[in-house]
Specification:
Protein name: Lipoprotein signal peptidase
GO molecular function: aspartic-type endopeptidase activity
Keywords: Aspartyl protease, Cell membrane, Hydrolase, Lipoprotein, Membrane, Protease, Transmembrane, Transmembrane helix
Structural class: alpha+beta
Radius of gyration: 16 Å
Number of helices: 4
Strand content: 15-25%
Function: This protein specifically catalyzes the removal of signal peptides from prolipoproteins.
Family: Belongs to the peptidase A8 family.
Length: about 150
């Protein structure tokens, strides 16, 4: 099922390409409103994990999060190698999660933080900023859960 790794590479290329482009045209905090009251793009640097968890931890969290991401990459590749033919949705979900994990891992190794830029909100209720890699991880996780329910 390693044939689905093309999906991981597509996520990595899209994620890194958009982050690089936005980092060249905007400074941190700059952005645009896409849909008023719902969606905006703004360049944000996240030194923590999801939802900025551990963002103010002083720097040690970078190495912890790099280690966790590397472990996740190894485990997902091992699972993909062992999947049986016909496990298409599992392979797709894991490939999306893998691509997202590597996209954010590249940022964390190269920059020391993850570049986020998508801001979703409903009026004054704001979701933490995220990026293409985070979206791929979330979509992959939803597909994985739905596929588990479908199979049982």
């Amino acid at each position: 099922m390693l044939r689905y790794l093309w999906l991981s590479f597509a996520v990595i290329l899209a994620d890194q390409g958009v982050k690089l482009w936005l980092s060249h045209i905007w400074r941190v905090g700059q952005g645009i409103v896409v849909i008023p009251g719902l969606l905006n793009f703004r360049l944000v640097h996240n030194t923590g994990a999801a939802f900025s968890f551990l963002a103010g931890a002083g720097g040690w969290q970078r190495w912890l999060l790099i280690g966790i991401a590397l472990l996740v990459v190894v485990v997902i590749v091992a699972i993909l190698r062992r999947l049986k033919p016909g496990s298409t949705w599992t392979a797709i979900s894991l490939a999306l999660i893998l691509g997202g994990a590597v996209g954010n891992l590249i940022d964390r190794i190269r920059l020391g933080y993850v570049v986020d830029f998508i801001g979703a909100h409903w009026g004054s209720l704001y979701w933490p900023y995220f990026n293409i890699a985070d979206s791929a991880i979330s979509i992959g996780a939803v597909i994985l859960v739905l596929d588990a329910f479908r199979r049982h």
